[in-house]
Amino acid sequence: MEILDGKKISNQIKEEIAAEVAEMKERGEKVPHLAAIIVGNDGASMTYVNSKVRSCEKVGFESTLIRLPSTTSELELLKKIDQLNQDDDIDGFIVQLPLPEQIDTQKVIMAIDPDKDVDGFHPTNFGKMALDMSTFIPATPFGILELLERYNVETKGKHTVVIGRSHIVGRPMSILMGRKGWPGNSTVTLTHSHTKNITQIISQADIVISALGVPHFLKAEMVKDDAVVIDVGITRVPDESREKGYYLAGDVDFENVSKKASFITPVPGGVGPMTIAMLLKNTLLAREQHRGEI
Predict the structure, then answer these.
(1) Mind listing the domains of the chain with CATH numbers?
(2) pTM here?
(3) Which runs of consecutive H residues, i.e. helices, occur in the chain?
(4) Catalytic residue among 5, 91, 119, 253
């Protein structure tokens, strides 16, 4: 069994990006600039956004963090998005999800300029991804592909089972694993809450990608020997015995599943760090596109 170490690989990617940015500075060029909008005070979102800002500093990017109160109206947020769309200094930006209930998430995603949509959520970018065209791939699926590639995990001809059909992970992952090329060329089954005999389907998988958000859902008896297991789930489980009052759990019963898997991602330290690294990579790509370098 080999650990797919997202922390290690994400640090490698950041070092590669930092080297590129250092060269830009030497040439007197503008460095990439990533902005993030966060609405409200959701704890997990704040942690994630702050981590993005620190990562920007680490690789030499410029970063802008825009904090808006949870009472912000949809119109106010759309105005802020329009400002960022028009700002030539900003190469890419994200709107941190989830948003407060008074704001229509789809309307917000649609308002982002596809050329600055480094999260890869805009229908234009999602459509290009589905058609194998060059575009921004959503950061978490992009990170999973990078992990598979850097650990030389064979995907061609394999049976991949994706658990969960969210627009952020499950659905794009099912498209990407079935695409021509590598990682890809696998036969994909997309499972969800209405899938019958889900345990039986999972037991036939060479590669399992779980993006369900149910702690310890995937048990050892559900996976076959030498399966590749990618755990995208990360849930705060209350635990008063711990200093923070919770611990982070993935979808996979890591202790037992790891004894059967050929490759497996830990939680934390697996897919999570890769998401931020690939967001930086998308921002670098956006900067190159804006300056006509691609």
Answers:
(1) 27-115 (3.40.50.10860), 139-273 (3.40.50.720)
(2) 0.94
(3) 6-26, 43-59, 74-86, 105-111, 123-130, 139-150, 170-178, 198-203, 254-257, 271-290
(4) 119
